[in-house]
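Internal tracking record. Fields below are filled automatically when a chain is submitted to the structure queue. Please do not edit lines marked as system-generated. If the sequence contains nonstandard residues, flag them in the REMARKS field before resubmitting.
Queue: standard
Priority: normal
Entity type: single polypeptide chain
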Amino acid sequence: MLHKCANPACTVPFRSLREGKLFLAETFPSELGAAFDGNRRKVRRREHFWLCDACSSHFTLRFDTTLGMLTVPLNGRMGPRFLTRATGSAC
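SYSTEM-GENERATED OUTPUT FOLLOWS
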């Protein structure tokens, strides 16, 4: 379940899908042993991330295979901010 805005600097709680922007990302497990299934294919997880109205007007989300999910400014003047794993929810 989503708990709050995916921007680590924001504390707005998730309350409704009508507010903000919802993202679905396919991510990979962090443990090497869980990274492959029995057919030697990479296992992917689907995670949901949400940005509140205020943050979604300034940021979007981008998944980096090394760094994880990043908040990326829409205007390009500010640097990316790293998200913690607690901001997503696995399905």
